[in-house]
Prior knowledge:
- This protein is an all-alpha fold.
- Helices cover 73% and strands 3% of the residues.
- Keywords: Membrane, Transmembrane, Transmembrane helix.
Amino acid sequence: MTKTSKTEAILWSIALPGFAQFLNGKIIKGTVFILLEFLININSNFNKAIMASFLGEIDQAFQVVNFQWLMFYPCVYMFAMWDAFKDANGDVAPFSYLPFVCSAYTVTVGLMYSPIVKVNGFLLGPIWVPILALIPGLIIGFTIMKLIKIKKSS
């Protein structure tokens, strides 16, 4: 079976955790990730919160979201992406998991702070703050990776 490219694995994992595992021939793993996705999504009311957020109804998003369930989402989501990335088409660079791990942390922290983060006096909500928190996670992860690579080469 031909493995997917790393880019394809990441993009399918963004669409739905577990899809890339299926493409990589990891049927049981893919099934587990899809089941976890549905379990967390349904119990956290994530889709309702996404819809309210995209419609600018941030107060409604806070009312429908269940943070106790949604707190699991960033780690499952980022781990599924890492797993798909690692299994796709060949070997991975040392410490290439760091951007995924750091992003899982920063998105989770963004979710925790979402009830208080405001821009120009407006709450961003439980969807936009975690999405924006992905950026520093990626930057931190890639920076640490680069620093380790520099340290090892010297």
